[in-house]
Design a protein that fits this description.
- With 282 residues, the protein is of the alpha/beta class.
- Helices cover 39% and strands 15% of the residues.
- The strands form 2 sheets. It has a 6-stranded parallel β-sheet, with helices on both faces.
- α4 packs across α8 and α6 crosses α9.
Length: 282
Amino acid sequence: MDLLLVPRSTAALSSPDDLSEINWERDRLHTAVKCGGYVAAISAFMRQHLRDGYSLPGHALVDMPNGLLLDEEPSEKALPLPSRAEGGFLFALGRPVPDKGFEDLLAALEILRSRRVPVPHLVMAVTGSGVPNEYQRHLARIIEDGGSDATLITRFSPRIRTWMSSPALRGIVVPSRREPFGRIPLEAFAAKAGPVVATRVGGLRETVVDGFTGFTAEPHDPALLAEAIHHALSVSSGERARLIEVGGALLRRRHDYLKNIRATLGAVAPWALSLPVRSGVR
């Protein structure tokens, strides 16, 4: 049997204080490798992390960059924007966990407003599937106590991503503190949205390159994030178009996910590519 494991994250990243979970995961990965299995790295950051943090041998690691299915047609109808965003808005979205750094984004925007920099409304979709968790309630308190010009959305809907195509969008911000890969910039490039502002952390460093595909800042630093957002809001229409074009080219060249999956299977399990197509599975 050929075995290929594709970890999207690890316990060492998501639960760094839980040594029992980390050790369990490390043991299972090494067991898989000893049985002839391979472990796919979804980014250069994850390759280094699996090698250095989990001591996986280089011969067992294969590169399978994360990406998007580029030929997949959007199926969701556009969701109406919050009324306060119709005149222009910044957009941030992600899971409701502290690693996403949304409070750093709120602090960065307050820094800009204190300097009298015009800042559009913020739509922050920090979404889960149920009742708001403690982190979402924490963000709601920050917005309410500070009187922030922001709309917080806590309930997930795939239609939220249609806002990336809105003509009122002024920029997309990814303020993560830790990120094994980070799909949001790729989704922005696919939607021809931008500019993208992201922190220089994990896999984000491979997709958002300062001045080429977006603007960047160090994580955990609202002041530097404020500067990067200011740059994004100040670009000309021509510069914005160039950033989006370069981002789209990067997406097509390096992050065509179906192409990357096929290349990885061709390297570790070529027989899988000869299987017949069934039930629409390619």
